[in-house]
Amino acid sequence: MSATVSANECENFYESKTYDKAVTSCQDSCNQNEGIGCKSLGNLYFYGLGLEKNYSQAITYFEKACNMNFGPGCNNLGTSYYYGLGVKQDYNKAYAYYEKACNMGDKNGCYNLGVSFEEGKAVQQDYSKASAYFEKACNMNFGLGCASLGYLHHNGLGTKQDYSKANTYYEKACNMNSASGCLLLANFSSEDNGSVKPDHSKAFAYYKKACDLDDESGCFKLGISYTQGKGVQQDYTQANTYYEKACSMNYGPGCFKLGNSYFKGQGIKQDYSKAITYYEKACKLDNDTGCYNLGIMYTEGIDVQQDYSKANAYYEKACNLNYGAGCNNLGSSYHKGRGVKHDYSKANTYFEKACSMNYARGCVTLGYFYSTGNDVKQDYSKANTYFEKACSMNYGPGCFNLANSYDTGRGVTQNRSTAKKYYQKSCDLDALKGCFTYRILNEQGY
Q1: Contact assessment for residue 363 and residue 387, using Cβ atoms and an 8 Å cutoff
Q2: Does the pTM of the predicted model rise above 0.85?
Q3: Could you write out the DSSP letters of every residue in 263-284?
């Protein structure tokens, strides 16, 4: 068998996912000192395709391919060092191998050099240099290079913001069947970009293409389009189909949305048990809202035995994933001694964390504590700071409490005209007590 035949068979079997045959052909090709054979054999070990996953073996074959001056082998070796897979993480070595790959005309290597400059790994962050390497990859017909170049133009990073160029590069990437390019183009089409108005029909088409290219975010966004009826007729059943597809690709938000559909009976028969199943999967995939909703299920005892301890565990995970509502609920548990020992200090810590994440209810709770001296030293000024922050987030109770402080001169100079303004805002935000007090002050001529 000639070397060329071995290489071709290796490549063909690999591309057709006939991995058992690829192992033999790629080994033969590598033994004949063909870079593509060694690189492909490394991939089979790296991903555990037809062979047991073995990063160390993968590195051996990537190195062999790179030493044969086969660019893709150097790129894969660079990626191993970049992420610390099979070797100690080393951004400098990753950069060196990416550079070698790019100099040999490997599009992935040029793209990854761009990423190194974009993220400032092993080199000083430099969007202009990142742009140059993304452009080089794009000119080699590498879709991700075009998509990344479009992103830089879209956001004015390393170049003047230019929506027209961004759109051009996104389109080029999508036309190369880059799922990321299609997704970015869809997001771009759904935005108001200067003179270009949102086109949800176009966005829907691009989300569809991204999903067809097995991009989990594209499938999720397609589900959102059907849920909201944007660019397509509203159809909850179809939405659930795409949420399920996204979830099957281990995309947490898709699992969460599918869980919500089962919880509400939206486009599907209501089933709390299935809702819990999908919330659990979402939470395992580090989806904050999935963890939070599980906490609610255990707090309320919905289709599960009420268990405050389990609820708190899920609130804690949601909080650690920077979901303010999870921190707030955990704070409430410590404050009430629900599933945990009473601990006012911890309660305040979690309420503060919730507020810092712009969860308005946490801010109001802190404001109330400082206003009443409940478990903290009374401090009206601090209380008003928290009420004001909640109000700035358009949370009615925050505006009402701030209005009350101005009305009574508590922690601020009494000013009923200012109080009236905040009562009105609280009323507009459906805080009914604000409506009542606003009317009284209005009748009094303030």
Answers
A1: yes
A2: yes
A3: HHTSSS---HHHHHHHHHHHHH
